[in-house]
Structures are given as C-alpha cells and as structure tokens.
Amino acid sequence: MQPGFDFNYAHLFEEELLQEILSIGEYKKVKAGTELIDIGSDIEFMPLIITGAVKILREDEKGDELVLYFIEQGDTCAMTITCCIGQKKSKIRAVTEVETELLMIPIQKISDWMIKYQSWQMFILQSYHERMQELLEAIDTIAFLNMDERLLKYLKDKAMINRNEVIQVTHKEIANDMHTSRVVVSRLLKALEIKGEIKLHRNQIQILKL
DNA sequence: ACATTAAGTGATT
DNA sequence: AATCACTTAATGT
After folding, report:
1. Residue A16 and residue A62 share a domain
2. Which of A76, A119, A124, A182 is the most interior residue, by most CB within 10 Å?
C-alpha cells in the first residue's frame, strides 16, 4: 500500500474496493507546478490526491487565468466525473500547487465501481457535492466580495494549502491567479500591510492574522 | 558595475 | 479597478 493512502481513504471504502484501487491505480509523485489536466484535453484518468494540493483554474481565449479553488488530500477532481456522463474534454486546468502524490484511476473504472460498490458511489456523489459548494463559494467571492477581501481570502487559502503562514509568491503571480493587474495587487497588499493583516517581503508574504 | 526582475507610486480614465 | 509611465529596491552575473 502506498504511504498516506491508507490514512486518507481506507476508512471510506470496503476492503475489496480498496484492493482494486491499489492494484489498478497508478501511483505518481509530481513536483509543484505540474499540469495535470489542460483545457480541451481528453480526460483519461481520475486523480485521487494522497498528499499535496492542486489548483483548479479557468482560462479565457487569450490565456488569461482565474483560480477557482484548490483541492487537497482526500479530494478528487469533479471535472473527471462530469466527463464520465458525456463530456469528454476538460473545461478546466489543474496544476499542482505543491509536490503532490496521486493515484491515477482510469475513468472507465469510475462508472464500473459506481455499480459495483456502494461506498464508491457515496464517495463520488460526496466529492461532486463538495466541489459544487466550492464553486458556489468561488462565485460569491468574485461577485460579492471587494477586491481586497478577495485578495485576503486568496492569501489565506494559499497559506492553508501550503501549511505555512509565509507564502512564496510574487505580486505578478497573484495578479495572474486573480485575473487582475499587478499594480492593483501591489496597492491592495500595501493597504493590507498597513492594516496589520500581512507583512510584505520580496517574493514572499507573511500572513499575520489567520 | 551593470542588467534584470520585483515592487512602489502618481496621474489619468 | 485598469493602464501608463516612471522610480526605487533587491538580486543575479
């Protein structure tokens, strides 16, 4: 059994399914910044995250990005579920945020196991539900929150994912993730620093109030 | 010492 | 909140 897998998933599935997952799933360890799924690509595998985190983003025709949410250990990608009920091409991009360990499950197995295992069906529905919630939260954030609140949420999410109150990032990168300009980010960060929420350094930001 | 990249700022729309 | 134009600061060669 892969290290870590036990901890996150073992209690969810019955023994027989667990053995199938372990024998069929392909174990992978990837570095931070690895693209797992691209927009328009065919989805062949469903990733089960054992450790680490993945950034899910949307992109427009010009290549401008917008981060929707992050997924962590014990989570899976809802896009792969969508593709099992028709849609084949991915509508989102998935990039690892930190070094991540995963199990790649062929998508055919998703529906096979849905019929065969009650626990798997629950897991898939539960995951889909959680992703739906996160998507709604992302919409709320973009539609109802001011840019500075949005920025603070982004920083806190990022700190949470990295399990570190100091995050390694440039203002430019934040601007890309939030689909705004670097100048705006710099100004808002400065304001947050004055408010005592964060401390700024070159290439890194310390979150003071988590 | 010089070039490059990150970050700060005023002014304008 | 976006863009421009410019400055200042930090870092690499």
Report:
1. yes
2. A76
Residues A109 and A66 in one domain: yes
**Residue A5: per-residue pLDDT:** 65
Interatomic CA–C1' length for residue A26 and nucleotide C2, angstroms? 46
| Number of domains within chain A | 2
Residues 106-125 of chain A: which lie with beta carbon within 7 Å of strand B? none
Q: What is the pTM of this model?
A: 0.89
Structural contact between residues A188 and A152, judged by C-beta atoms closer than 8 angstroms: no
Provide the domain limits for residue A122.
2-143
**Do A81 and A20 sit in the same domain of this protein?**
yes
> What count of Cα atoms within 13 Å lies in the side-chain half-sphere of residue A23?
6
Token code pair at residue A121: 């069906």
Q: Verify if strand C has an atom below 7 Å from the CB of A184.
A: yes
Chain A 132-161, CB < 7 Å to strand C: 146-148
Give the HSE-up count for residue A120: Cα atoms under 13 Å, Cβ half-sphere. 19
A191 contact to strand B (CB, 7 A limit): no
Band of the pLDDT at A10, cuts 50, 70, 90? confident
